[in-house]
Write a structure and sequence with these properties.
Blueprint lengths: L22 E9 L26 H13 L4 E5 L9 H10 L3 E6 L6 H10 L3 E5 L4 H7 L5 H14 L3 E8 L4 H4 L3 H6 L4 E6 L16 H17 L6 E5 L2 E3 L24 E6 L4 E3 L12 E2 L5 H5 L6 H5 L5 H4 L4 H4 L4 H8 L13 H4 L1 E3 L5 E3 L5 E2 L7
Parallel strand pairs: 1-2, 1-9, 2-3, 3-4, 4-5, 5-6, 6-7
Antiparallel strand pairs: 7-13, 8-12, 9-10, 10-11, 13-14
Helix pairs in contact: 1-2, 2-3
């Protein structure tokens, strides 16, 4: 039985009295398949090498691209699993190029041979994202694959040599956090356009290794180490980003709370839905943090994406999550944290309405409050945004 089919399925409430949020999608993450040649210890989608893993399929994916174009989507991110394993990935990229999308493809790099990359380039792909979780020992432990480091590095080098805009991603855990900043000189020397570091989110198999989440004080020191390493290194044109995760009381406050969207609070999508994630079995989620604990907005195998997003009933469960304990809502930081991560509360405590586990209930005493996992900070400039990079 596939890992995705084992995920918790909840019934959507039937009420439709409240409207759907404003939908203006900037990006769709399309998980082409849940099959992967790796079985990383923290995979959000619990992907495996099992051939029975769900697959979106060529026709369903092409229909989704057409629907996305019709509602003004700008960016398509092909992911998985490992999308390179699908023989029709080139067809999807070619159609995406015809429709005018800016496209990215996420890969673990092991299968990025020059001939495959040339096929993807000829189809119209220009941006690839490759995961690298530290020096060889760290990378191969987190990716559960001995010998992978050499193949991943070759994939990065092959993509850069062919002219791809390459983003190198790393997931920092308590096991590798001491060595991630040390990757900066090497990543920059490879000609990567972006080096982006992610915090371990306990979703999918990540729940099994939640103890590896980096503690708040160590994460703050890590961001400083990243800044220091970037200053010492000749980063050239490489942009260095990391997820912010926590906001500290000695930092200048944002001028005003953001208006919503990706990176602007756990339920920021209720104010502005600018991103969705489509899983390999067709289910649609407003954020990756919810994929194994919450009901989907709908399924593109049953209804077109625009119908799903504009139906108030799709959002009923998530609107109900806005309920917040009085003590939390009266906190002076509530306008900035929005009550923290509902998904993390559910994952770590079993209760949607418990405090975000990153918060003691007294952020003034602990000197920080939790932020949306999707909020990223540019290490050099300090600017923050919900999406990892800008497109030229």
């Amino acid at each position: 039985m596939s890992s995705l089919s084992q995920l918790t399925q909840l019934e959507l409430p039937g009420g439709a009295s409240r409207p759907a949020p404003p939908v203006g999608l900037r990006e769709i993450d399309i998980n082409v398949t849940n099959f992967c040649n790796l079985e990383c210890i923290y995979c959000s989608y619990s992907s495996t090498p099992d051939r029975r893993e769900p697959e979106l399929g060529r026709d369903a994916a092409l229909r989704l691209l057409e629907q996305a174009r019709g509602i003004g989507v700008e960016v398509i991110h092909f992911s998985g699993g490992e999308p390179v394993t699908r023989p029709y990935i080139g067809d999807l990229i070619a159609r995406g190029a015809e429709l005018g999308f800016r496209m990215r493809m996420h890969s673990n790099g092991a299968l990025l041979k020059p001939e495959k990359l040339k096929q993807l380039w000829d189809a119209g792909l220009r941006r690839v994202l490759v995961s690298l979780d530290g020096p060889a020992e760290d990378h191969e432990y987190h990716r559960a694959k001995p010998g992978l480091y050499r193949r991943t590095m070759a994939g990065i080098e092959n993509a850069a040599a062919l002219g791809f805009n390459v983003r190198v991603n790393a997931v920092a855990t308590s096991l590798n956090v001491d060595r991630i900043a040390g990757l900066i000189p090497m990543v920059c020397s490879l000609g990567a356009a972006t080096f982006s570091v992610f915090y371990l989110i306990p979703v999918g198999r990540g729940r099994d290794v939640a103890a590896l989440m980096v503690p708040p004080q160590r994460w703050r020191r890590f961001l400083e180490e990243m800044r220091e390493a970037a200053i010492r290194s000749d980063t050239g044109e490489t942009e260095i980003t990391a997820e912010k995760v926590f906001f500290w009381d000695d930092e200048p406050l944002p001028e005003k709370p953001e208006e919503g969207g990706r990176g602007h609070g756990c339920l920021g999508f209720l104010k502005k839905c600018d991103y969705v994630n489509v899983l390999a079995d067709g289910r649609v989620y407003p954020c990756v943090c919810f994929v194994d604990v919450a009901p989907a907005l709908g399924n593109i195998r049953r209804r077109p994406l625009p119908d799903i997003l504009n139906d108030p009933r799709s959002w009923s469960f998530y609107r109900d999550l806005q309920a917040t304990e009085t003590g939390c809502r009266s906190c002076e930081q509530f306008a900035h944290c929005g009550g923290g991560s509902k998904a993390l509360s559910r994952t770590m405590t079993g209760d949607w309405f418990r405090l975000d586990p990153r918060c003691s209930g007294n952020p003034s005493a602990q000197r920080f409050y939790p932020l949306c996992f999707m909020l990223r900070e540019n290490i050099a400039t300090g600017t923050r945004r919900g999406f990892a990079e800008h497109f030229a």
